[in-house]
Each structure stands twice: as C-alpha cells, then as structure tokens.
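Friendly challenge for the regulars: who can give me the structure tokens for this chain first? No prize, just bragging rights.
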Amino acid sequence: MPLISLNSSKLHYRKLGSGSRIMLAFHGYGQSSAYYLPMEKALGQDYTIYAFDLFYHGNSRLYKQQIPLSKEHLQELITFFLEEQKIEWFTLMGFSMGGKFVLTLAEQLPERVEELYLIAPDGIKTSFWYNIATYPGWLQQLFKRTVLKPGFFFQLVRVLDKANLMPRSLLRFTRSQMDSTPKRLRIYRSWIGFRKLKVDIRQLVRTLNKYQIPVTMILGEYDQIITAKRMKAFIKALDKGELIVLKTGHSHLLHEVAELLHQRRGS
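First reply, four minutes later:
Bragging rights claimed.
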C-alpha cells in the first residue's frame, strides 16, 4: 500500500476508483482505510478516492517527536501528498474520528476544498469522556491507569448498565474496543495523539460560507454518540448545508452511506 513519508512520520493510503474528481477520506476509530472499500462501488466512476489509515491504525506511524499530532504537521503531510499526486482541488469525507481530520483540513486548506461529507463526525461537539481523557493533569493519568488496569472501569460499566444509565452504543464500544490491553492503549494513544486537532467551529462556519463549500452531514437515527440534536445548529449556520439521517446506528453508518450515494448516483 502506498504511503506518504515526511519528517519520519508515515501515512499510508489506499487508492479506490478512477473518477476525474478527487476525494480524501478518513475512517473512524478501530477501523482502517479498508472501511472505504464500499465507496468504490458508490463513487468510483466519479471520484478517485484516497482513503488514509489514521495514525495508530493500519500501517500509519506518527513520529514520536510529532506527538501529539499538530494541525501544522497534518497540513504538511497532506500538502506534500497533494503536490506529489499533482492534485489541486479535492473533496473531503470523514467518518467518526476521521471527522476531526476533515474539519482540520477544511480549516487549513479551504481554498482547495470542493465539498465536505461529514459522517457522524467527531470534532464538532466534544464528548464528556473525551474531555476527561485529554484533560491535563491527574485526570489524564487516571485514564491511563484505567487503560492499563481496567478492573474498576469494567465494574463501573456493569453497574451503569444494570441501572440503564449507559447508552447501548457506548456499551457495545466498550465491550468490543476495550477488551484487551493493546486495544485500550490504542484508545488512549488516539485520544491523546489527536487532542490538538481542535477547530473553532464558529470560525470554520464563516470560512465554509466565505468559500461557499457545500457540506453534507449524514447521521444515524439510532446513534447515541453523535446525534442530530447536537449537529443541527452547525448545519443551520451554513449557507450550503444538508443534514441526512439514516435509520441505522453508528457502527454500520459508513456502509449505509455508501449505499445511499450509490442509489443517488444511479437515480
């Protein structure tokens, strides 16, 4: 699989489709660029899609001196890639955690962005748990100890579950993505490593409107983590914003979006 190598950081990507338009795509937590394979059928005739492995996922590696990932280093990597591929204009698509990358690049390179697809994106409304994990000081150290010795955490999860105080989607995430030390470390490294990818949303809205960049946001009706209620204000503030809600949850949303875009293209 091809890669971008710059300042000892390595960002791997997968090339899909053969269309004349260009799309840069970023996956969610615990996934890889392979999750964008369904998009080749949906968009491959119109777009050439470059789907990236996020750092701490797939084959991408962030150089130790670049941790946490800065906006500037991300921009350097992508700009280097664009120059190497002779790409001038591009569309951005981000799912879940990949939304932070899309929002950052839209902020940094708005004059080159044609369109945004935000699929249940992280980065617009930061979660309570994310704030705790990335907060400096003892809370961050407490979270790290929880990652290494999770006994108390799982006991708390069981109590919250019995009391029906924990969203089912979060419970499924906990069971599937925190059941081993390597997985828990990936959560910690991702949250800490990407903590600088924060965007001033009000300023971003002004930028998107200035450059008249269309934004399509697609959410899952049963997604309890990224909800329409938390995103409506962002979409309403855009000159060219569209909100689509599909009858699915968070995990399968990207596949449902691929099917939706395939149907739209065929109609």
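The longest strand covers residues 9-16. DSSP finds eleven helices and eight strands in the chain. Your move, everyone else.
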